[in-house]
Prior knowledge:
By secondary structure, the chain is α+β, with helices and mostly antiparallel strands. The chain has helices at about 5-10, 105-115, 120-125; strands spanning about 20-25, 30-40, 45, 50-70, 70-85, 90. Strands 1, 2, 3, 4, 5 and 6 form a 6-stranded mixed β-sheet that branches.
Amino acid sequence: MQIETKEISQVYGIESPWEISRMMLDREAKEMEVHVIRTDASVLRCPKCDQVCSLYDRRPRRWRHLDTGKYHTFVVAEVPRVKCSDHGVRTVLVSWASAKARVTFAYEALVTDLLRETSAPAVARLMGGELELN
Length: 134
């Protein structure tokens, strides 16, 4: 069975108008980066009021995701910021993480489930020494 790009995107929580542009594996660092691009820059909305706004700039962001095998995995994207007439400069929302999070929804859900079952130090060890929640 061959896996399509759309199915891979679903694994990482990537939804339109975002898509995976490339995946990079760093064997030495034991890290995998899933690079994501926004495919439709024509319609950008204020995350507070949903008003259509113009592009202000883009900011690089990196979110910790669930491990891929033995590799720590990160979702990486240049996230647009818009200039809203009512709310000023705001970062556009992404489908895989909450507004100011440094981890994906999937990572946050796993850590939350683990914390219900065991101690925070044990969860930190299981997650590779990192325990980041928003």
